[in-house]
């Protein structure tokens, strides 16, 4: 039994996640050798190395933990309560960073509750909509109730204010909703309701949503060189880094833009440093790894016969894909900057830990899928003939 389970694990997915995380650790070290902070050159590397060790432990635990237990109410209820209390607790003991009340200090470490709220939304919506499959198209009973939790999470994250993370959570939830099996009619109802809710909230919070900083992000991404020394400073230097890397890059550790020119080189703009030092090959490696994780997750979701496991896999893979697109899009000027880390690569404890837990769950779902395919006995169709005494006719029943 144990040998069969071990053979059923998705080792290709495990290897890709491990390689990408180790590559990220190397690039964090390179990108943070010179920073605007008064810390030793290996400060962020040492912290990220510890983050990676802790994340690895949680990855192993969740990869071994049967995912089906998570749809139990005894698991879901504490998770929902803890996630909401964590987000609400920011307004009491939270710490402001980058103009948002997003962090809670726990000893020498800081935790970002919104990162774990992403996974909470995935697990909750997947579990509830999986249970409601028999009446998924009954709007009042099957569609609307689970969205109360989603609305609370999005609101609590948005008022920090962290509209980037709130938007990511909303997009992830939308992916799960679209994959849940509900009719397009109900989906359109949700779109209309969401629009009706967002409009008044936008009016109330218009000063925060349309602050000078955010307006500058919207205007500068289209032409950062119009105000290169102010609003376009980050994106312009990201372009310089990407452009100077060329095909093969300047060499590991040889970036010029990390020498005080590109802010947050080890977090939001780490892909620019990768492009500058390792060229298109370094960027290609990151894109291939992230693409494999996303596509593998979708494939697992499609193969999984359990609705809960299927929605979990799709939700987790969509989270990785959405977050990667927003980070890469911001660093290359495709979309405005939002301050979202690149999964597995950027520096950050909360992000790396949450991603490790998510990957552990995905690997566990994949293990169950492969185990059932290889070792679970298939039902055979036996035909039983039944002779009815009344008519003497013979009927075939398939069991």
Keywords:
15 helices; disordered C terminus; 5 strands; mainly alpha; 3-stranded antiparallel beta sheet; about 400 residues
Provide an overview of this structure:
With 399 residues, the protein is mainly alpha-helical. It has one domain. Helix content is 64%, strand content 6%. It is built from 15 helices and five strands. Strands 1-2-3 form a three-stranded antiparallel β-sheet. A two-stranded antiparallel ribbon has the order 4-5. A hairpin with a 2-residue loop joins strand 1 and strand 2. Helix 3 packs parallel to helix 15 and helix 5 runs parallel beside helix 15. The radius of gyration is 24 Å and the shape is globular. The protein starts with a helix and ends with a strand. 42% of the residues are buried.
Please describe the topology of this protein.
Elements: H1 2-7, H2 11-31, H3 43-64, H4 73-93, E1 94-97, E2 100-106, E3 109-111, H5 113-131, H6 139-143, H7 147-158, H8 163-179, H9 184-204, H10 206-209, H11 212-220, H12 233-245, H13 270-303, H14 307-332, H15 349-374, E4 383-387, E5 394-398
Antiparallel strand pairs: 1-2, 2-3, 4-5
Helix pairs in contact: 2-3, 2-13, 3-15, 4-5, 4-7, 5-7, 5-8, 5-14, 5-15, 7-8, 8-14, 12-13, 13-14, 13-15, 14-15
- Computed CA radius of gyration, to the nearest angstrom: 24 Å
Number of strands: 5
Total tally of structural domains: 1
**Shape assignment:** globular
Would you list the SSEs in sequence order as H and E? HHHHEEEHHHHHHHHHHHEE
Note poorly predicted spans: 380-399
The portion of residues forming beta strands comes to 5-15%
Q: Distance between the terminal alpha carbons, to the nearest Å?
A: 28 Å
Biggest β-sheet description: 3 strands, antiparallel
Average pLDDT for all residues: 86
Largest sheet, spatial ordering of strands: 1-2-3
Contiguous helical run count:
15
Helix content: 55-70%
Helix-strand category: mainly alpha
């Amino acid at each position: 039994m144990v040998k069969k389970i071990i053979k059923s694990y998705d080792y290709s997915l495990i290897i890709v996640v491990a390689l990408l995380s180790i590559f990220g650790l190397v690039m964090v070290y390179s990108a943070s050798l010179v920073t605007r902070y008064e810390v030793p050159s290996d400060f962020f590397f040492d912290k990220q190395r510890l983050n990676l060790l802790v994340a690895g432990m949680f990855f192993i635990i969740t990869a071994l933990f049967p995912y089906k237990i998570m749809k139990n109410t005894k698991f879901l209820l504490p998770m929902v309560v803890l996630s909401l209390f964590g987000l609400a607790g920011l307004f009491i003991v939270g710490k402001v960073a980058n103009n948002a009340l997003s962090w809670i200090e726990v000893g020498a470490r800081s935790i970002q509750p919104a990162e774990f709220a992403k996974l909470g939304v995935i697990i909750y919506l997947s579990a509830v909509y999986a249970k409601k499959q028999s009446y998924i198209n009954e709007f009042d009973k099957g569609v609307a109730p689970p969205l109360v939790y989603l609305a609370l999470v999005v609101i609590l994250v948005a008022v920090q204010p962290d509209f980037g993370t709130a938007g990511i959570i909303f997009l992830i939830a939308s992916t799960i909703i679209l994959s849940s099996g509900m009719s397009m009619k109900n989906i359109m109802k949700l779109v209309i309701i969401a629009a009706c809710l967002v409009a008044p909230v936008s009016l109330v919070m218009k000063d925060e949503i349309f602050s000078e900083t955010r307006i500058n992000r919207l205007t500068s991404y289209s032409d950062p060189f119009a105000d290169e020394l102010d609003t376009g400073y980050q994106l312009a230097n990201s372009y310089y880094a990407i452009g100077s890397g060329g095909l093969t890059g300047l060499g590991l550790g040889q970036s010029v833009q990390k020498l005080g020119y590109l802010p947050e080189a080890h977090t939001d703009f780490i892909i620019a440093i990768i492009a500058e030092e390792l060229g298109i090959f370094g960027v290609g490696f990151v894109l291939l790894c992230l693409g494999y994780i996303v596509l593998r997750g979708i494939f697992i979701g499609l193969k999984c016969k359990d609705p809960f496991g299927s929605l979990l896999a799709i939700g987790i893979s969509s989270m990785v894909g959405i977050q990667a697109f927003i980070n890469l899009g911001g660093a290359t000027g495709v979309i405005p900057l939002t301050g979202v880390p690149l999964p597995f690569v950027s520096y950050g404890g909360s992000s790396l830990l949450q991603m490790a837990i998510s990957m552990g769950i995905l690997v566990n779902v994949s293990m169950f899928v492969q185990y059932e395919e290889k070792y679970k006995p298939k039902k055979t169709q036996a035909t039983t003939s039944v002779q009815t005494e009344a008519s003497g006719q013979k009927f075939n029943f398939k069991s």
